[in-house]
C-alpha cells in the first residue's frame, strides 16, 4: 500500500470526504481541504450548470490563499464527483469545466468510461471509482480508473452490503492501487482499522452532515445528532436503488419504512398537505441518507472540530506508516 504522490505531505489524516448530494458545496469542501482531508462534491450540486465553473474557481482561489499563509500545513487536494450514467445530460459540459480547472481528483459513480479516465490523466489528475462489488471493481480498473472506493455495508446513501473485511481482502488479492473504504466510518479508530485491513483511506460522509459548513437542512443535522445505527433503514423502495436512510425522515415524509411495498406502491403512502392533496417527498431533500457510523456524532460542530477529533483518535490507535503531513505535525497531533 502507498498513498499516491498527489496526497503526500498534504493530508493530516488519510481521509477522503465523500461527495453528498445537496449537502456538499464549496464551503464544506474548502473547510475539509484546509483541515487536511480531501474535500469533494458532486458536480450536479452546482445549479445551474454554469455555477460549476464559479465553484471550482472559488475552491482553487481560497485553497491557494490558505497555502500561501500556511506553507507548513498545506491544504489537501479536492475532488469532483461525476455521475457517468447515460441519464446525466450534463456529463460532457461538466467534464469540460473540470478540465478547464484541472481538477486534481475525479470520483466517478454509476458507470465507468475510458474516455473520462483518459481525459483526466491528460490533465494530470487521478480517478477514483466507487463500487459495491468485485464485478464493478474489476470493470472500473479495466477501463482505466486509478483507485477504487469500496462502498461496503453500513455506508450512507446508495450503499452495498459486503462486509469491509471481505471487500478489502478480496480486492487486495488482485489490485495494488489506492483503495478508499466506505462504511460506518465514524471515528479515527475506524480509519485506522481500514488501513490495517489493507485500504489506504477512510471514505467518510455522514459525520460531516452535522457541521456548520454543510449545506444540509437544520432538521437533517439535528436528526444526525439524535439518531444511531438502529435508526437507519436499508431499502430500495424509495429511489429504486438500495440505500441507507434515516427512519425518522421516512416517517416524517409519510412513508412506512417497514411496509412490504414496492417502489411503485410507495406513492400510495405519501403524506397529504393542508389542502388534502397527496404530496410526493423528494429523495435527499425530504428523505435523508445516513451511514451506520452516525452514533459518534454528538453535536453540530465545525469541520475543523470533526477532523481534529478524528486525528486524535486515529493517531492514538497508532499508524507509523502514514505518509501525510510532516512528522512534526503528526507528533503534535498524537501528543494533543
A few lines on this structure:
By secondary structure, the chain is α/β, with parallel strands linked by helices. It contains twelve helices and ten strands.
Explain how this protein is built.
With 336 residues, the chain is α/β, with parallel strands linked by helices. The protein has helices at residues 26-34, 51-69, 91-101, 114-122, 134-142, 164-172, 188-197, 218-226, 247-252, 263-266, 303-317, 327-335, and strands at residues 15-17, 39-42, 78-83, 105-109, 126-131, 147-151, 179-182, 201-204, 232-235, 243-246. The two termini are 28 Å apart.
Q: Estimate the global geometry from the Cα principal axes.
A: globular
DSSP helix fraction: 25-40%
Strand order of the largest sheet: 1-8-7-6-5-4-3-2
- Tell me about the biggest sheet? 8 strands, parallel
Structural class: alpha/beta
SS field, number of helical segments: 12
The gyration radius over C-alpha positions equals 19 Å
The counted number of beta strands is 10
Helix and strand sequence: EHEHEHEHEHEHEHEHEEHHHH
Low-pLDDT parts are 262-273, 326-336
Ends apart, CA distance between termini: 28 Å
How confident overall, as mean pLDDT?
88
What is the percentage of strand-forming residues?
5-15%
